[in-house]
Amino acid sequence: MKTVIPYFLVLLAAVLWGTTGTAQTYLPQNAQPLTIGASRLAIGGFSLLIIMIAMKKINFKTWPWLITLICALCMALFQPLFFTSVRVTGIAIGTVVAIGSAPIFSGLIEWLFLKMKPSRAWVLATTLSVIGCGLLFLNKDSLTVNPLGVTLSLIAGFVFAIYTIVSKALLSKVEAIPAVAMTFSMSALMLMPFLFIFDSSWVTEPSNIWTILYLGFMTTSVAYILYLFGLQKVPSSSAVTLSLGEPLTAAVLSVFIVGEVLSPVSWVGVLLLLGGIIVLTFSGRRRVKHIE
User: Fold this and answer.
1) 3-state DSSP helix/strand/coil percent for the chain, to nearest 5?
2) Which residues pair with 116 in a beta bridge?
3) 282 phi and psi, to 5 degrees?
4) What SS3 state is found at 116?
């Protein structure tokens, strides 16, 4: 049972990420996604950073700055890459390519560069999950396959895979909570210009404060703390595959809270996604095979 708990932590993080879309429906329609991203990173990162500094959990002199900078850069890049790809090529294609390609990139990087061969359980779970993700989104609206948008989505998926792999290296040097605090504070600084480029006056409106605080604390701070705690025991490629629980959660919430209606094909996608997650979680943990 102990080997399953880290998988559940990663999955719980994905569930929290999946509530982001529903939470954003309570924000003004003119709120730019990049402004929302910058705000949630700032709230989640800076609040944790203040607490960690007060608790003397961060030693700036010995901190692994280079690894943290790479993680922060990946998180900062993912936001504009993903949201721009969705705007260019549509929600369906942008989401499927970005989220679906991330576990594939992660598995390939581990295999080719870290000499870690994926297990059959990971291959099966990833295949089921990626196909499920495709069925969930690909029939939602008229499809627009824009080469630039698809390219941006692929880069976004690659960037998230790199973030996960590098974060695992960061966790070998520092604890999970200080790692989240430093990474997301640096990411927030990188995205700060968007708060001035776009209208961000909605952030301080009383009706929006609780929503943005939820996005900052729950879907950022708490979610990534859970993700990194789980990542300590879960292979990077498996963690990225489990992150596909995000679109699964978003789909379920869209039905029961927002009131959207899923087609039969989308429900098949939901079942395949759920099946992939179950296969990976209850396989215990992937037995890493090193290539001689």
Assistant:
1) 75, 0, 25
2) 290
3) -90, 10
4) strand
